[in-house]
Amino acid sequence: MKLIFNALAVTLFLPYHVTFDKVLVSLKMGDSVTLHTGVETNQQDVIKWYFNNTRIAQISGDLSKICTDEPCPGRFRNRLKLDHQTGSLTIMNITNTDSGEYELKIISNNDSKKIFSVSVTDVPAAELYEMKERESVTLDSGVIKHPNDVLTWYFNEILITEISGDQSKICSDVQCKQRFRDRLKLDHQTGSLTIMNTRTTDSGEYELKIISSRFSITTVKRFSVSVTAVPDSGLSSAAVAGIVIVVLLVAAAAAAGVVYRRRRRHTAVPHE
Ligand SMILES: *[C@@H]1O[C@H](CO)[C@@H](O)[C@H](O)[C@H]1NC(C)=O
Ligand SMILES: *[C@@H]1O[C@H](CO)[C@@H](O)[C@H](O)[C@H]1NC(C)=O
Ligand SMILES: *[C@@H]1O[C@H](CO)[C@@H](O)[C@H](O)[C@H]1NC(C)=O
User: Fold this and answer.
1) What are the TM regions of this chain, as residue ranges (predicted)?
2) What is the pTM of this model?
3) Contacting residues for 191 by C-beta, under 8 A, at least 6 apart
4) What distance in angstroms lies between residue 52's CA and the mean position of ligand 2's atoms?
């Protein structure tokens, strides 16, 4: 359930300066993940990606191939992206059949090899949070933040918050301020986002991007929020108080009218 990054803190120095790393990545279905190479490619380098020993992508000079051979196209159906500058591989909208070993081979002056062992938990895609207007909701990051991680929240692609080290920015963007004013709260341990006093206009897609530079991984998690209007509560408590006062005034006026009429009748009596 939780997103856990683990590194086997072993970097073995093999002959010929071949470096070897293994990173364990645990994800939920629907997450996206970028596996970073940590290099800028140059014309001489060749970068190759394998999934369970099948080549899925390669960059060599200006040439890049992605998912050309079966079963890659069938399995990843346009869900792979390759960064041409760095050779980093992005797997979008991950599913449980994507679990396995992603091996990176960099063939350059110094050859290096890195394995990202990815396991995808069998939890349904994109978490859906449903609530009623004016309730609060906490979008659970599912992680324990490391000081080096950078966590960024977006709402429909508007930047809303960023936590980086012990610094955090909440809603410094104008569009964010217009929408959320002071209704956002961040948990600094986990990066979870709380939206208070929700409105129907808070409904939509929220994204949490976690850049974990320690393990050369960027994860994007999606959260769907649906806030439903509460029919009779279109009235604020101030409006309700206003209505009560009006009703009381009307009642008072009516009562006064009755008294007045009565009095008139009483005073009229002697004249009859
Ligand atoms: C992710 O994949 C699921 C099932 O494979 C699909 O129903 C859904 O539309 C996809 N979502 C995105 C954002 O691509
Ligand atoms: C890839 O390898 C992992 C671990 O060996 C295995 O659990 C998984 O089923 C394999 N996936 C595919 C699609 O071959
Ligand atoms: C290759 O790696 C070794 C050991 O990590 C380093 O000392 C050397 O500078 C590297 N050479 C190049 C060309 O990157």
Assistant:
1) 238-260
2) 0.74
3) 141, 143, 145, 149, 151, 163, 208, 210
4) 6
